[in-house]
Design a protein that fits this description.
five-stranded antiparallel β-sheet; Lipocalin; mainly beta; 1 helix; single chain; elongated; 371 residues
């Protein structure tokens, strides 16, 4: 009897060990599954703060200075150069995500950036060859002659006209939408995101050109142009998250948007002792205001490498490109191709154009807190 009892005890102990091992293995499996998915999200909310360097490039925003040929007659105006406004700056972004259920969450983002550039030029004045002319925003505002005006160079020999171009821009970009998990596998998540978007752009152009009139007195042209854009629209895209190692995740996203743009231009110019060809010097001022609206498409691509510090904190390296088409730009009057010995009419006033393309490149760091 004791022999059989010993056998029963041994068999029971073996079954107990097997059940314990099986339960322990199941716990480890669940822990591993939790680790796989916890990397992408932890808790019900997350907040990301990003700081980055920005480079903004505009395709058609330029300002043109010109020279007037003295020979042969009739005189010929030609563009001096067309300067763009590529600029460097700094930006910040905050992204807030709050879970609604296992698949859906509300996503809100707000970012702002500022950039600037400054350029100087010296235009040579030679009465026998070329004479720098002053671009004006509205020739009809500077007197009945309605002509392009001339500044001579400073200095007895090798006279030059000094030109300074200053450009500042800033913008804010907001988004509120729904984030849905479309695919969720061991190491991969694919999200679809769609929502409402709003952006506000402000550009400030300051152009200063100074030299002397025919009598040697100081001549100066000061031009200030402010261009404002408000854009309302829809934005949507895909975000792919891929776990590379236990603590490293790579995230890529592609977004597209469609916006309605409303633009406003305010331009002011002051001339001091600027020479009217073959007559005299004048001092005057002019103002121009314009409005415009158009459809603006947008494409946004970004790449992020994320390092998991712990269950609450992530550190990321971010980069991306943002492209806007049909953005507004300032169209200043162009010089006539030929000029006679009398004042040349200018029938075009500074106005808003709709053919600019804005490219924004950014590289930065981000910190994410999950709770």
């Amino acid at each position: 009897m004791r022999k059989y009892l010993l056998h029963v005890l041994i068999i029971s102990f073996v079954f107990l060990l097997a059940a314990t091992a099986s339960y322990a293995g199941e716990i480890e499996t669940r822990k591993e599954e939790a680790r796989k998915y916890t990397f992408f999200s932890s808790g019900n909310m997350s907040i990301m703060l990003e700081s980055s360097g920005r480079f903004l490039s505009r395709d058609n925003n330029y300002f043109s200075y010109a020279h007037m040929s003295q020979s042969p007659s009739p005189y010929t105006f030609t563009d001096r150069e067309r300067l763009n406004y590529d600029s460097h700056g700094f930006g910040q972004k905050i992204l807030f995500n709050s879970n609604i259920n296992d698949k859906d969450s509300i996503e809100f983002s707000f970012q702002g950036a500022t950039a600037s550039s400054e350029k100087t030029r010296r235009l040579k004045f030679d009465a026998n060859t070329t004479v720098p002319s002053v671009p004006v925003i509205d020739g009809q505002s500077f007197g009945p002659s309605q002509q392009h005006l001339i500044i001579q160079g400073l200095g007895a020999s090798g006279r030059y006209v000094n030109v300074k171009l200053e450009y500042d821009t800033w913008y804010v970009d907001t988004f509120l939408g729904l984030n849905r998990t479309m695919i969720k596998k061991d190491n991969t998540e694919l999200h679809g995101i769609v929502g409402l978007a709003f952006a506000h752009f402000k550009q400030d152009f300051e152009h200063t050109m100074y030299g002397a009139d025919v009598n040697g007195a100081l001549s100066r042209s000061e031009l200030d142009e402010e261009l404002t854009d408000n854009l309302f629209g829809l934005k949507g895209g895909l975000r792919l998250c891929r776990r590379v190692t236990r603590n490293i995740n790579v995230e890529g996203s592609v977004f597209g948007g469609a916006y309605h743009r409303r633009s406003k231009l305010d331009a002011d110019q002051t001339l001091t002792n600027v020479w009217i060809p073959y007559t005299s010097a004048i001092s005057a001022s002019a103002s121009v205001n314009d409005r415009d609206n158009d459809f603006v498409p947008r494409t946004e691509v970004s790449l992020k490498a994320k390092y998991k510090i712990n269950d609450r904190w992530d550190l990321s390296f971010t980069s991306g490109v943002d492209a806007w088409w049909s953005m507004s730009n300032v169209n200043n009057p162009k010089l006539p191709s030929r000029a006679g010995t009398t004042a040349t009419l200018i029938d075009q006033i500074t106005h808003i154009g709709d053919n600019d393309r804005l490219m924004e490149y950014h590289v930065g760091l981000a910190i994410t807190f999950k709770y």
